[in-house]
Amino acid sequence: MLIYLNNGLKKRMNGLTTKEIKSVLIEKIPYYINEWRILPRVMVGLYGYVFWHVSTWFMALADPTASQAAFVSTIVGASAAFFGLYVNSGYKKSKE
Q: In the chain, N or C terminus with fewer CB closer than 10 Å?
């Protein structure tokens, strides 16, 4: 079984049993998910898709109502809060 997360991990896995490999992966995969900030990036991508879809839907309406305009304003206004949460979130390295 070849694992290519990084060279240190690949060297560390040479000669290990399957149980030991699973143990190393259980230790390293959450670290890399947190370090690479995979979930926040996916959420920003999904929000971008929703933003685009709602915007094109609203622009295609012939005569939008006040409630439809309020809905679009809510989605667009949430972008500032969502972007602020994304920017301020992340892995905080301890100073030990």
A: C
